[in-house]
Amino acid sequence: xxxxxxxxxxxxxxxxxxxxxxxxxxxxxxxxxxxxxxxxxxxxxxxxxxxxxxxxxxxxxxxxxxxxxxxxxxxxxxxxxxxxxxxxxxxxxxxxxxxxxxxxxxxxxxxxxxxxxxxxxxxxxxxxxxxxxxxxxxxxxxxxxxxxxxxxxxxxxxxxx
Length: 161
Known about the structure:
Structural class: mainly alpha
Number of domains: 1
Helix content: 55-70%
Number of strands: 0
Strand content: under 5%
CATH class: Mainly Alpha
């Protein structure tokens, strides 16, 4: 039983402590992690957990971000899933790693599409506008790597349908 397993409880507490204490930005400068802000706007309109929203948006955002920072997602694919890449297979490796991540989420019962929760595209533009209204940089972009415009956020959300 997990609640009696002191080591398991300690691991969960440690994970909660480090989840968003700034370590997530290590190696990427001071840019924010946009999936959280985008998801908060979605769950403000729908009765879904933050975790479910993250599981849906994250793979779509990763595919968007891999177009701008392929090397970071190849590193993810190699270190987390043991994939290899060289030369022309570089982007293919990054996308394969993201596919593996999405498959993992599915295997543990997470939704990976808004449609699985009955959410359609009617409010996608609203979510994007709200995310930018709440937090944006001096150029009106969502702080991230890469920074995201309203159109970028809408594109990611459409990919998550």
